[in-house]
Amino acid sequence: MASPPSSTAESAPYSVLAVGYDLVMAHVDYPGWADHVERLFAAHDVTPARILELGCGTGSLALELQPRGPYAYRATDRAPVMIAVARRKARAADAAVTFAEADFTNLRVSSPVDAVLLLYDGLNYVTDPAQLAALFHGVARALRPGGVFIVDQSTPANSENNAAHFDDAGSEDGFTYERRSTYDAAERLHTTTFTLSVDGRTFTETHVQRAYTRAEILEQLAATPLQVEGAYDAFSLNPATDASERIHWVLRAPGG
Description:
Layout: H1 21-24, H2 30-43, E1 50-54, H3 60-65, E2 72-77, H4 80-93, E3 97-101, E4 113-118, H5 129-142, E5 143-154, H6 156-161, E6 168-172, E7 175-184, E8 189-198, E9 201-210, H7 214-221, E10 227-233, E11 246-252
Parallel strand pairs: 1-2, 1-4, 2-3, 4-5
Antiparallel strand pairs: 5-11, 6-7, 7-8, 8-9, 10-11
């Protein structure tokens, strides 16, 4: 595993957090997320052979979902330490997942894929709407004709309704974290500050996300080739509304 930086200055997002990311995300039901992805595949008559996951983190969803196909699965993340952890986990599990560093706002693929995934708030890290447009256009180019993009978003309702649940702390195997969050409703920016202790050294990471509305995402999508096939409330197949705290989108590339 790559070592965390030695500086005590603020570190780039996920450069130190990656070491204990699985502890921080221990509450996440990855089998449940994989179930929902496959539910969306079925609901939209998608039988992918090749999947590209963006913002894969330490690979927990990839390692859960890939064997179910089994799929030819490539998973990417911008943070090199996250990818290092993901590769270690894949080797331990003897999993057929390829991991690579990549920035999903500048997406390039060598050959088109059947499905692209970007889940668990990855879209919200794109705080500039211009980069959001670049993401959607890049995914459209990466998909084969008729391929699908499954992407979720956390909405303003989530930040407003669940403020009491975003702060926490934990410790395991020499890694300690404290998470504190604030939400600027006027700017719709959700800022999370992590104080991290690794091997006796202390770091801070600041993560900023934009809470897009459903209407804003629709506006961005209107200028892309992607066609909206579904916008679902949380983990259901019920239509999303402006009150939805999480929305799962199913977007289709033209043709096919």
